[in-house]
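@channel sequence for tomorrow's demo:
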Amino acid sequence: MDEFRPIVTMEKPITLFGCAGDFDKVYSCPQCKRRLQLGQMTCRCGHPIVWDGVAAWDRLQRARSRKQ
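structure tokens (generated this afternoon):
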């Protein structure tokens, strides 16, 4: 199941003047290493992505279930 989970890395965003910024979470396809948006179900290469178990996704799903 781990081969379908996205790779989560922390990257520093590129800023215009090189000022120090916070790190951003970046989600990547485990097969082709392309960047993914949170919740994207398939990569452009056709690889399916399973988001269950990713902390940000679980938090988003809990918030959605509380609204209903």
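heads up for whoever presents: DSSP finds one helix and three strands in the chain.
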